[in-house]
Design a protein that fits this description.
five-stranded mixed beta sheet, two-stranded antiparallel ribbon, 2 domains, Gyrase A, domain 2, single chain, alpha+beta, 24% strand
Length: 147
């Protein structure tokens, strides 16, 4: 008979990325604050703030990477991202979209559309201008709150 092999459980990891490029470049989203939010809110074994050596959250420029040694749901990461957007009044402007199997991306909503569903150049320009005005207002609010 052939020798029996020891059955060792596979050590698998779950890796997910959040691409925050557009909102961070526009200055309406603070990636470091979001990283801190995730560190405080992610639950491990039913307890928040219990990351230990199981879940690692890393911040690289405009991306956040979550690596877990235990089972971790991509949907849970989306839920926490939406919760953060709601808390910071950004939920009306940004949405969380899966760009591939392991990555979520924050994108702006398409603000205005014509009745037939297609957008004209004028309405796109107006919605883009409105978004820029909103970004300027948010930057001014941040500056006044710092002073």
């Amino acid at each position: 008979m052939a020798p029996k092999k020891d059955k060792k459980p596979k050590k698998s990891t779950w890796k997910f990325n959040l691409d925050l490029t557009h909102p961070v470049e526009d200055g309406i989203f603070d990636a470091r604050n979001f990283e801190q939010f995730l560190r405080e809110k992610v639950k491990v074994n039913g307890k928040t703030g219990n990351l230990g050596n199981v879940v690692h959250i890393e911040h690289f420029k405009n991306k956040i990477m979550v690596v877990s040694e235990k089972q971790f749901s991509k949907r849970y990461l989306k839920y926490l991202t939406k919760k953060y957007l709601k808390k910071n009044n950004l939920r009306d402007w940004l949405r969380v979209v899966a760009s591939d199997k392991e990555t979520y991306e924050l994108r702006y909503f398409q603000i205005s559309q014509d009745e037939d569903g297609s957008e004209s150049e004028d309405s796109m320009k107006l919605s883009f201008i409105g978004l820029r005005v909103l970004i300027k207002q948010m930057k001014q609010e941040k500056e006044t709150s710092r002073n």
